[in-house]
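[Q] Does anyone have a clean structure-token version of this?
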Amino acid sequence: MKKINWFKLILSFALVFGAAGLGSYFTTPAIGSWYGELVKPGFNPPSWIFGPVWILLYLMMTTALFIVWQKREKIITYPVIIFTVHLALNALWSILFFGWHNPALALIDIIMLWLIILYLIVYFWRLEKWAGILLIPYILWVSFATILNYSIWVLN
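[A] Here you go.
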């Protein structure tokens, strides 16, 4: 069994939860105001569900990144770069949707996010099966979020 690289583990956590924090910075103020006033589809979950789901997904993303990164000697590697690009798209969605109140631009972003998550699943799976598996619930949630984003855009 390979020794845990604590630096990469902590950096994995910092990258993922840094993106989560940036997204949350734009999301939280809009929940009780702008987002609360939007017309939402009947399948829209209650607001309280999003926090726990995202925390779990971010933990799974952190673990997937760490598993793949742990297999590499260098700090800067292609999997880390593509994962970081994906995190930028993830955070950008919150900025576009909640910060700018623009579901149309957010929809374009989330479609690109979905595509890069699919790519990451396939790529990570080839490197380490469990890393790919850990991203499957994420793409399922983002698939649901894409439909929700589209529905909110159409209804408003």
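[Q] Thanks! Anything notable?
[A] Residues 27 and 112 are 20 Å apart (CA to CA).
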